[in-house]
Amino acid sequence: MREFFQKYKSTILYGFSLAVLLFLMKWLEFRLIVIDHALEIYIGSIAVVFTALGIWLALKLTKPKKETIIVEKEIYVNDAEFVQDRNQLEKLNLSKREMEVLELIAQGCSNQEIASQLFVSLPTIKTHSSKLFEKLDVNRRTQAVEKAKRLKLIP
Amino acid sequence: MREFFQKYKSTILYGFSLAVLLFLMKWLEFRLIVIDHALEIYIGSIAVVFTALGIWLALKLTKPKKETIIVEKEIYVNDAEFVQDRNQLEKLNLSKREMEVLELIAQGCSNQEIASQLFVSLPTIKTHSSKLFEKLDVNRRTQAVEKAKRLKLIP
DNA sequence: AGTAAAATCATCCTTAAGTATGACCTCCAG
DNA sequence: CTGGAGGTCATACTTAAGGATGATTTTACT
Q: Residue ranges of the HTH luxR-type domain (chains A, B) (predicted)?
């Protein structure tokens, strides 16, 4: 019941206003017989009142235009997933073994540890690393790591 | 002249409408004498017409209501600008010199190069790096670099 | 003013890293 | 089938790096 009233509040108010005004008119009609030439004033006031009513109705009933604003919210991803630069890799022409050695060097492994992990001898790792340094145009493992990261060969 | 009309278009139209309707009323007034009991209909139509006029006026003159809906669009930025982990730095209690040495080591510099850049002797750098490795709990410069990056001490 | 931490330098020694060279094997394409 | 590339291993040498210890000087703070 209350919901019904809420929903049609404007319509009911309009109807009620009409009823009241018509009643007022009926009463005024009677007065008009007495007061001559007052009909114009009466009609004018009716016009004004209903114009105001119309304006009020319009303001009440018009639905607001919806305007969507898209706000770009930047989210900084700490992840920064690594994408290997295949282009650079081709240019440098590193072999599989050299890449493996490079990765292990970057992890801080010693030559001996690398040799153990790859099941080869220490001299083998030395030759690999030497060739690697030559291709990377460096002469220290630390430089190799720095350059490899800069060239996006490793994360 | 045209601008004036444009500016006060609504007002002029309103005035004109009023004039027309008053003229109409005058004419109807005459008719009412003939047709009995038609005053109510006449008044009613006046009310309806002016209500409509009011609505029209309101719609024309009032600024359209705006309701802004903010939609957040998530943009994933891969930037991940480096922020030094001050917390870790405090825990490790590294001195200024040790940090400087760490940074240069990370850049691939040799001890001799670091000594030259910092205007100190090679043994000094060795002591610094030794203490640095001790604090970082590593025993190779490459490990130090790897760990420092992992702990977000350096980019 | 005195003390602790930081910074500097040195020496001695060990180990890891880097360089050079040569040899051997395997696989694959010309 | 043969030569080149990749991989393996070895030896010998040089240099850089790392560890241990001690000493002196700066700096900062109570």
A: 87-152
Tell which strand C nucleotides have any atom below 7 Å from a protein Cβ: 5-12, 16-22
pLDDT tens for residues A3-56? 555 656 666 566 666 777 777 777 766 665 556 666 666 777 777 787 788 778
Supply angle C-alpha A95, A103, B146, rounded to 5: 160
Residues B130, B134, B136, B138, CA torsion sign: positive
The answer to whether A77 contacts B76, with C-beta atoms less than 8 Å apart, is yes
| CA–CA distance, B100 with B69 (Å, rounded to integer) | 51
Of A43, A59, A71, the CB nearest to B58: A59
- In chain A, residues with a C-beta closer than 8 Å to the C-beta of B54 are 50-58
Which of A43-52, A57-66, B124-133 is predicted least confidently? A57-66
Residue A74 forms beta bridges with which residues? B75
Dmax over CA atoms of chain B, in Å, equals: 125
Residue B120 pLDDT class (50, 70, 90 cuts) = very high
Q: Which long-range contacts (CB under 8 A, 24 or more apart) does B132-141 make?
A: B132/B94, B132/B98, B132/B101, B132/B102, B135/B92, B135/B93, B135/B94, B135/B98, B136/B92, B138/A108, B140/A108, B140/A110, B141/A142, B141/B105
The conformational region for residue A37 under phi > 0 = left, psi -120 to 50 = alpha, else beta, is left
Question: Do B25 and A40 lie within an 8 Å CB cutoff?
Answer: yes
Q: Which of A53, A80, A108 comes nearest B78 by C-beta? A: A80
Residue-averaged pLDDT of chain B: 80
Report the alpha-carbon distance of residue A46 to residue A26 in Å, rounded.
12
Interface of B with A in 98-137 (CB under 8 A): 105-110
Q: Please say whether the beta carbons of B105 and B97 come within 8 A.
A: no
